[in-house]
Design a protein that fits this description.
Distance between the termini: 67 Å
Structural class: alpha/beta
Shape: globular
Strand order of the largest sheet: 23-24-25-26-27-28-29-30
Radius of gyration: 30 Å
Largest sheet: 8 strands, parallel, barrel
Strand content: 5-15%
Number of strands: 30
Number of helices: 25
CATH class of the domain at 605-810: Alpha Beta
Length: 833
């Protein structure tokens, strides 16, 4: 599989990077180790946005992040805070986040610019001459996929690509000796002192019912050492006391509404709350160093805390202990069994250049309301440095920040030259990274990385080269500002305002002076005093030499906006045309390897939703609804015929699609050529099914040549065969799945009424690849028998999805019964019509 830009990691940073690159017109592959995208707001169960006081202001976040927030509210008919949680201005359900992310990316998927691959994680990176050329990823079933690209963005949750690619990286505390940070641990590096993780838990409350979970192993130890309590230490060094459903003794709002994601009374249903509290903050092992242990134990810790809430938590009315009515709520994609699909990751491996972003760089500057200005700004963030317990160091640490920026230089690995950080893994110390890790910060880093990657391609420059040339950097910042990314803290300027672009270019270059250093607003209609004009002129000259005199003709009382407009116009006019010829050749596809198959097919049902021309249900709209019905009934995947139907089904259900294209009547007619196969894949099929009988193919290619060409593009193949010999040959040719689909439909195979279980059994005994039972399976008993014969999965079609054929079977059976039975005269009542 190849693209111009590969984004490895599908959390918020990865989504933002892919969106920015695709909107710039580039081809993108976006991969994710989970089955769905979203990270923090989906599978990590933190859909209560950690933000800053200015997030609702016009210039408080980028246009794309604001679009994300608007879309989330639109899922609830515009309600500002659907959950009513007091930790955030916007709390929502993970299912809503999935729908919104899908909608944001769908146009680019449909246009062919973006391909999304889920359920795979990076296992190897290939470098040549100081550049990354491809990344190999492995699915949960062990199958591998290689992705080649010109630029790579590491948006993995724990910075997994950094060590694979040979980039310099750090984890844990750098130590106070390194940069003099008060939040760093004393002395030298503490690489194992990684911040805690949390496995969130979705719950609802059903008074009068008992949903107490079993007491997990280690309960007593965790209860006493965490400890389990509704009191937490505040940033003011005081204990904050809470009650479950009522205000606490100190007036603090209820624990229940802390991260409530759905306010039931508002929507005519029950409350849905998220348990993410100090009580289930896990700090015994690191997700980076011991991921399996940390993942398993953090889940048990959350269940232990829930058990305490159900059995020992003091009741608000003082009459007893425990709330047994607390019930875990399952979300299949994000919270199976109520527990987050993956822990919330607070700390990632980070790029480690000689001069990373430090604690001091984010702290307030005397006489100003912002942190120190970064002339290479690529976006904004603002959150306190909130260090949770670190492995071996249970005390949390905190320091305030001033509104700060995302420096583009912190995204560039340097080695390899074409690798960018796009999530929590930017070049920042542990202390500083703790302020970037939250939702809007990760999005800002990803959006900056995606835009930088796109600009690097457009300019035919390595990212570091682009940042080193001031006028190239100005062009990049111009592209960022034009897509609505604020480069400096000017909260009253909306991206739709014509002043937005020049104001942010100049402000990021140091153009704020005088009283505007002491406030976050631009107040553009107020006059620009001498200090303002001097700062703006110097900034304009930095951006484009000679531009600083463009406002000299304006009167001394001219509004700030007039000065900015004049200087900004001059900057854009004086920028040299640095456009270079855009590369037109994509990187060569990597050496073929088996692409990953869709997960969770073993032992499950695949429904074949097909209707031929002339049949009543022929057409994409009907097949999409048929697939919806199959999904509702528990199908693990669907098998779909033709690009139009595949595209419609792809948008209708979140199921893997085995795609094919029936064309012709004689010889190989199931996806008969490579051209057919590529069209099926382009329409959105996860697996391409084709004729594997060995009969001559219309395009002259052998089966092995066709499979090799598909594998080179990362496309798994299912070979439909009729005999054991054909199945063995198809597997030898590289087929990833072998199906019995054509048994009984070729001269060399037996003509029988039911499924060919003998062929299923013979193939399962001889092949190393999964065998798919398909063909004339009409009852649940026959499907179960196919599994017993060794099938990996079972495809059922007409017995489920062909109502005309099903009707004909019943009608024929009744007609036969009438013919065989003796005639019996019946007299209808006179008043019966």
């Amino acid at each position: 599989m190849a693209a111009e830009i590969a984004v490895i990691g599908g959390g918020l940073g990865g989504v933002a990077a892919a969106l920015a690159a695709a909107e710039a017109g580039h081809t993108v592959v976006l991969t994710c180790d989970q089955q769905v995208l979203g990270g923090q707001i989906t599978t990590q169960l933190v859909p209560a946005l950690d933000e800053h006081p200015h997030i609702e202001a016009p210039g408080g976040a980028s246009a794309s992040y604001r679009r994300l927030r608007r879309a989330l509210r639109a899922e609830y008919d515009g309600v500002d805070n659907p959950g009513g949680g007091w930790v955030s201005r916007l709390c929502f359900e993970p299912a809503a986040a999935l729908r919104v992310l899908d909608a944001l990316l769908a146009p680019h998927v449909a246009a062919g610019r973006l391909r999304i691959v889920t359920g795979v994680r990076p296992v190897r990176a290939v470098r040549e001459g100081g550049r990354l050329t491809s990344v190999r990823l492995r699915g949960q079933d062990g199958r591998e996929l290689s992705v080649a690209a010109v630029l790579f963005c590491d948006a993995t949750e724990t910075g997994e690509l950094l060590p694979l690619a040979g980039a310099p990286w750090a984890i844990g505390s750098e130590g106070r000796d390194a940069f003099g940070e008060s939040l760093a641990l004393p002395g030298g590096p503490h690489p194992h002192a990684v911040q805690s993780c949390t496995t969130g838990l979705l719950v609802e409350h059903r008074p009068g019912e008992d949903h107490t979970v079993p007491r997990p192993e280690g309960y007593e130890r965790w209860r006493d050492t965490q400890p389990f309590t509704l009191e937490i230490a505040g940033w003011d060094d005081r204990a904050h006391r809470y009650r479950m459903f009522t205000d606490g003794p100190d007036g603090h709002p209820p624990f229940w509404t802390y991260r409530r994601l759905r306010e039931g009374a508002r929507f005519g249903t029950t409350d849905l709350a998220l348990i993410n509290w100090a009580g289930n903050d896990y700090a015994d092992a690191s997700l980076v160093h011991e991921p399996e242990r940390a993942g398993a134990e953090s889940r048990r810790l959350s269940l232990a805390f829930l058990h305490w809430l159900q059995t020992e938590c003091p009741r608000d009315d003082g009459t007893g202990r425990g709330y047994p009515g607390l019930r875990p709520v399952t979300d299949d994609a994000c919270a199976p069994g109520g527990l987050a699909a993956e822990p919330y990751v607070r700390e990632s491996r980070r790029l480690a250049p000689p001069a990373p972003v430090r604690q001091q760089d984010l702290e307030p500057v005397p006489g100003a309301v912002r942190a120190a200005n970064r002339p290479d700004s690529g976006g904004l963030a603002f959150y306190h440095m909130d260090l949770h317990a670190r492995i071996g160091h249970p005390q949390s640490a905190y320091s305030p920040t001033a509104p700060f920026q995302v420096p583009l230089s912190a995204l560039v690995a340097g080695s390899p030259r074409n690798l960018l950080a796009a999530a929590k893994n930017l070049a920042a110390t542990q202390a500083a990274a703790a302020a970037y890790r939250v939702h809007h910060g990760e999005w800002a880093v990803g959006e900056a990385a995606g835009t930088l990657a796109a600009q690097s391609l457009d300019r035919a420059l390595e990212p570091a080269e682009l940042l080193d040339e001031r006028q190239e950097l100005t062009s990049l910042q111009l592209a960022l500002a034009r897509r609505g990314v604020p480069l400096a803290w000017l909260t009253d300027l909306d991206p739709a305002d014509p002043l937005f672009v020049p104001a942010h270019l100049l402000a990021a270059a140091g153009g704020l002076g005088g009283a505007r250093l002491e406030r976050l607003t631009a107040d553009p209609e107020e006059p620009a005093d001498v200090r303002d004009r001097a700062a703006l002129a110097a900034a304009a000259d930095l951006l484009a030499p000679g531009a600083g005199r463009a406002a000299d003709h304006l009167p001394a009382t001219a509004p700030w906006q007039d000065v900015v407009t004049a200087l900004g116009t001059a900057v854009e006019r004086l920028l040299p045309d640095t456009r270079r010829e855009r590369p037109t050749v994509l990187p060569a596809a990597p050496p073929p390897c088996r692409p990953p198959l869709p997960p969770d097919l073993a032992g499950r049902l695949v429904v074949s939703c097909q209707a031929l021309p002339g049949e009543p249900l022929h057409g994409p709209q009907f097949m999409a609804q048929m697939a919806v019905a199959a999904h509702s009934g528990g199908a693990a995947a669907v098998r779909i015929n033709g690009p139009a139907d595949i595209a419609a089904v792809r948008m209708a259900v979140p199921l893997p699609v085995i795609g094919l294209w029936k064309d012709g009547e004689d010889g190989p007619y199931i996806t008969p050529t490579l051209e057919h196969a590529l069209a099926v894949a382009e329409a959105g099929a996860d697996v391409v099914a084709l004729d594997g009988t060995g009969r001559p193919r219309p395009d002259g290619r052998t089966l092995a040549e066709t499979i090799e060409a598909l594998h080179a593009r990362g496309i798994p193949v299912m070979a439909d065969v009729a005999t054991l010999e054909e199945g063995l040959a198809a597997a030898a040719a590289g087929a990833d799945l072998v199906g019995t689909t054509l048994s009984g439909y070729t001269p060399d195979s037996p003509d029988q009424a039911g499924p060919d279980l003998a062929l299923v059994r013979a193939l399962a005994e001889r092949l190393d690849v999964p065998v798919v039972a398909e063909g004339r399976i009409t009852t649940p008993d026959e499907a179960a028998a196919a599994l017993a014969a060794g099938a990996h999965t079972v495809v059922v079609g007409g017995a489920i999805t062909r109502p005309a054929a099903l009707t004909a079977r019943f009608a024929t059976a009744l007609a036969t019964a009438r013919t065989a039975a003796p005639a019996t005269a019946r007299t209808a009542p006179e008043d019966q019509p």
